[in-house]
Every structure is written in C-alpha cells, then in structure tokens.
Design brief:
Elements (H helix, E strand, L loop, with lengths): L5 H47 L4 H13 L2 H12 L3 H25 L3 H9 L4 H34 L8 H10 L4 H29 L5
Helix pairs in contact: 1-4, 1-6, 1-7, 1-8, 2-4, 3-4, 4-6, 5-6, 6-8, 7-8
C-alpha cells in the first residue's frame, strides 16, 4: 500500500474493512440517537414547563447554556469519573449537550403560538390538556423538530470524540489513522462517513421539519 496514493489507499482500506466501518457507523449513529432521544424526553416537557412559567426560563436556559461552555473532552472526562469508560459516558455527554437546542426551541415554539388561536380553543371549551395537545404542540412541533435536528448534528460530532473513552464509533477509526504511519486514508475512512451521517441526518430532519411546518394560505 505504500506506493498507492491516499485515495487508492482509502478504497483499499474500504475493500478490506468495509464491514468494520459499517459496524462502527451503526454504533456511532445509535449512540447519537440514544443521547438525543433521552434529551428530547426531558427537554421537550421542560421547554413546555418554562413556557408556562417564564420566570424560570432564564434559569433553566442559563444552566443549559453553561453546560455548552464546557469543552466536550472535559465533559467526557468529568462524566467518566462517575460512569467509567464506554458507551454510557458518551450517551450522557450527548444528552447534556442536546438539552440546550431542544429546550430553547420548545420554549420558542410554545411562545410563538398565536394567542388568538389559544383564545378560540378556550372559547370552544377545551381543557388545558386539549389545548396543549391539539393546538400548541402541533403548531410548535416544527420548531421543536428544528431543535432536535440541531442537537443530532452536534451529537454526531461529540460521539466521534467519544472514541477517546472507549465508546467505539467512527472516531475509533480516525484515532487509528492518527496513530498509524501514513494513516491519511484511515482517517478519511472514519471522517467521510461521519460527515455523510451528519449531512443525511440534517437533510432528513430538515425535510420532516418542513413537512411539519404549519401551512399558511
């Protein structure tokens, strides 16, 4: 392989390690999805809660903002002290970094619902629960999906760094490349699928977000 250029080495690596790359791609994606899903389970209700109690919004969003200021490697190291090496540490890190975009977008989406529409629902005798699930959430869902979309893009990058704590994923291939002599092709074998995953995830969730946007005449 030493006489081949980088791209030839890249295809050579894929031809002999394609299954391994596919396994790490799947592992990488699942770690990202798990972390973002857990953040959505917590972040969406929390965003709805602070939309009802605006005095708490600055505190909650401020805490989420503070988490974002911590470098990802530092966050991984801190969480590793409690959870040890492996996947759980990365999922928890992704969870924490995903909270801010999900909470902020949920809060913004709920705040942007037209008050006249809410008044119409109240005039029809809807309960608070019915107003939430039949009016507010459907109208705010595209904005909420935008937060989840941003969170997943961030998560894919963080998961790549998670290879440093033994979580595997495409970051593991990148690290192998950095440790190898003339490892440029191996780095590409990890970096290009990571970029592809980010682009596809952003495109798919962007498509869903547009489909969920309220139609205006």
């Amino acid at each position: 392989m030493t006489n081949l250029n980088t791209w030839q080495q890249f295809w050579y690596y894929f031809a002999h390690n394609g299954l391994f790359v596919l396994q790490q791609f799947s592992r990488h994606f699942l770690i990202s999805i798990y972390g973002v899903s857990f953040a959505a389970i917590i972040g969406v209700p929390l965003g709805i809660f602070i939309a009802r109690r605006k005095r708490l919004s600055d505190i909650i969003i401020g805490i989420a903002n503070l988490i974002q200021t911590i470098p990802s490697l530092a966050m991984l190291s801190i969480i590793m002290l409690g959870l040890g090496l492996g996947v759980n540490t990365v999922i928890m890190t992704v969870f924490l970094y995903s909270l801010l975009p999900i909470i902020k977008n949920t809060y913004a989406g709920m705040q942007n619902v037209d008050s006249d529409i809410l008044d119409s629902g109240k005039g029809m005798g809807m309960t608070k629960f019915q107003i939430l699930y039949l009016i507010e959430l459907p109208l705010a869902f595209s904005v909420i999906m935008g937060g989840i979309r941003n969170a997943l893009v961030i998560a894919i990058g963080i998961t790549a760094i998670g290879a440093f704590v033994g979580a595997g994923g495409l970051g593991d291939i990148i690290i192998r490349g950095t440790n190898a002599t003339n490892g440029g092709a191996i780095i590409l074998a990890g970096a290009l699928p990571t970029a592809l995953m980010t682009i596809i995830s952003d495109f798919v969730l962007g498509f869903v977000q547009r489909k969920l946007s309220p139609k205006t005449n």
